[in-house]
């Protein structure tokens, strides 16, 4: 098994524990307020999905890895509820797995599709990025790492799913969910009150 490196991004506390930062997870991030990098990835059924085809709709990008305890925490029901609530309101939700195929956490497309089905997940599509190019273009560092792209194709949120960086399911209800807050503001035609936050989770196992 490869060693899983949890990354808790918490400002001073993260700086106090630099060993948690894997050097391959540090990339130049796409900038909030700028057009989101376009991409085409295959979903778990092998169909190409292109970000720009959804222009005119808000899009959530969710970096995921079922081997990560932070991902499993939020797939206890939290992420499924968000996916169902907002895809029902016209939001496109793309779950992206950038885990390299040499990692112990890697799931083949059928395995990943089966895991999502078992969890009753409801993203618009689950995409494979095992080369890591899309994750690196967005500067995705951890799972889960969340982004919101507005209907004009501009990146308006990048960061953590919520305000409590733990793997405890009990903390979900206590936390401020930044993705829900941001989507509600976006759908109401309001600027996002918190366009960025520090993500937390397991470092992405990028190729190379």
Question: What distinguishing features does this structure have?
Answer:
AhpC/TSA, 6 helices, disordered N terminus, signal, 10 strands, alpha+beta, Glutaredoxin, Thioredoxin_domain, 208 residues, 3-stranded antiparallel β-sheet
Structure characterization notes:
- The protein has 208 residues and is of the alpha+beta class.
- The protein has a single domain (6-18, 27-203), classed as Glutaredoxin (3-Layer(aba) Sandwich), CATH 3.40.30.10.
- It has 6 helices and 10 strands.
- It has helices at 12-15, 69-74, 78-87, 109-118, 133-138, 178-187, and strands at 6-8, 40-43, 48-50, 59-63, 92-97, 125-128, 142-143, 145-149, 155-159, 200-203.
- The chain has a 7-stranded mixed sheet with strand order 3-2-6-5-4-8-9, with helices on one face. A 3-stranded antiparallel sheet has the order 1-10-7.
- Helix 4 (109-118) links the parallel strand 5 (92-97) and strand 6.
- The radius of gyration is 16 Å and the shape is globular.
- The chain starts with 5 loop residues before the first strand and ends in a 5-residue tail after the last strand.
- Mean pLDDT is 89; it is low at 1-27.
